[in-house]
Amino acid sequence: MSELRQRRGERPEADGLALPPGDEFASRSKDEVAREAEEMMKKIREGPKPGLSHEAKRFKDELKEDPYNMELIFQLGLAYAKDQQWDKCANVMLRGLKRVNEFESEELRVHFLMTLCQASLSQGKFRQALMVFNEIAEPADANLARSYEALKCFVLCSNGDASAGLKAFHKAVEGEGFDLALGHWALCYPGLQKVGALEVTRGTLEAMATDESMKKRLEMVEMIRELKMNTLKERDQEANSKLIYHRCLRVVALLCVCVFCFLLYHVETSNLQRLKIKT
């Protein structure tokens, strides 16, 4: 359990690009940011690496020996999330969905369910994400509560509930520092876009931006989110095109087999008829 506690604060990198705050960010050139953004796009286009990382393999092997161990279920789920293998992450963590109360720590319970919720969202399984989110008890810890509200915004907006989603967003950023509020906005971005609430929430962030560095950071985060979503869309379209192509090939192959069998049957029938005539 100690190793799990050490990792409880980790979050899977959603964008693959970490933007530093304040003056450090302002001092960076557009070329530097562009290079990192291009690297992020490349990783997204390539998709998750096939196979298992050493970490995931270790926890998977340990879980085989102890298949009901909640700590190992959580560790393996986190390893899959770190590798962006969201389908595997969700599959293994769903096994522990109704057993999260076995964790004594509120933070571990919330982290487990939030990770599973993120895995569901990343696969476009919005109803499943809502079901998982409803299992999360609202945290007493103030920082956890803000993350809870941000995720609530994402989940509700993804399911088309703009009003409740916006309410959750404002609760997440109220009284928050600019950088953390911007992080919440970046997390909720796809859901907010889905319900047409980007402009109103962007206005909230603009009001919090008190200097040029903050405004620049907001613009860059928005650009990166758009790039990521467009790249994911292109990747999915390409994957669907390949799937359709392979299905068409299977249909053509099946038709060829059917035609061949028909011709073979026709030839055999003709040969039998000739033999009967000769006899």
Automatic annotation (TrEMBL):
Region feature Disordered, mapped onto this chain: 1-37
Gene3D superfamilies for this protein: Tetratricopeptide repeat domain
Biased composition (Basic and acidic residues): 1-14, 25-37
UniProt keyword annotation of Membrane present: yes
Keywords: Membrane, Transmembrane, Transmembrane helix
SUPFAM superfamilies (UniProt xref): TPR-like
Name of the molecule in the record: Uncharacterized protein
Organism annotation: Alexandrium monilatum
